[in-house]
Design a protein that fits this description.
Blueprint lengths: L1 H24 L18 H5 L4 H11 L8 H19 L3 H24 L3 H30 L1 H7 L4
Length: 162
């Protein structure tokens, strides 16, 4: 039992740190009305195992500390991530799962940008959704599809012990 708890805490911390570090490393394109957040590829971990959800949400909170729109992004952005990765974890089809971040972040972050930055709502929703779609679906989906089909031993290493 203790080893499972240690495994969970360690993998949660690693995922959170990796999400935040990737966001910071590519911060020039991770915030604002048009964003390509490379760290969002990690959301596929929730598809593989819902135990990764806390690490993804925590990573988003930490990443949004330096958000260009302020602390509200720590709340709205992490709520959007929580909902998106939860829906990904419940979706059986990898491609369909890849669409949730674009839909959810488009709406949540688009609404936040409308409220905080007075940007047109539809414009914000569409640009945020487009950035998520490019990163998660066009880039992340083929990577994870390959890992799932060809490299199952890689996935076994990262799964959280229950």
């Amino acid at each position: 039992m203790k080893n499972r708890s240690v495994d969970f805490v360690a993998k949660t911390a690693v995922v959170a740190a990796l999400y935040a570090a990737l966001t910071y490393a590519f911060s020039f394109m991770a915030y604002g009305p048009v964003q390509f957040r490379v760290s969002e590829i990690l959301t596929f971990l929730a598809f593989l195992d819902p135990a990764f959800i806390p690490g993804l949400v925590l990573g988003c909170i930490v990443a949004n500390i330096i958000s260009t729109v302020g602390p509200i992004d720590m709340i709205v952005g992490s709520a959007a991530t929580l909902l998106a990765v939860y829906l990904m974890s419940k979706t059986k089809n990898l491609f369909i799962a890849s669409l949730w971040p674009a839909i959810i972040n488009g709406i949540f972050i688009g609404a936040m940008l409308y409220y905080v930055a007075n940007l047109p709502f539809l414009y914000s929703v569409l640009w945020v959704a487009l950035g998520e779609f490019v990163v998660v679906t066009l880039v992340g989906y083929p990577i994870f599809r390959y890992l799932i089909k060809k490299e199952s031993h890689v996935l076994e290493v990262i799964k959280v012990k229950k």
